[in-house]
Predict the structure of SUN2 protein.
Amino acid sequence: PGNCWAFKGNQGQVVIRLPARVHLTAITVQHITKEASPSGTIISAPKDIAVFVSLLGTCGDLALGEVRAGEEETLLGMFTYNTEKDPIQTFPLKNMLLPRAFSHVKLLVKSNWGNPWYTCIYRVQVHGK
């Protein structure tokens, strides 16, 4: 517990550079269980999450998590991490309209389960070919 990527507030984003170009199929998000939490709650877990890729390629600022003005992004999925289910949850991505592989994926956390000070993510895994 506590060994997570924590960001201030209940919203945040990260752009993940993949080790190779990938035809994305799913994303897995992990948090700890209520039983593993010292407080007995996991209100810092992400709740509403969106996954994007850039249609114009990636370079420079995007690797730092900033999208250039006017850059087109495609939403591959929106989902809710459910704190009542398994702590490791995999969500399929809509990739049928994207016949190419990508080297970066953006994870946008739109809300958490009630912690006003920070949100924690323990692991993100990107799946594909």
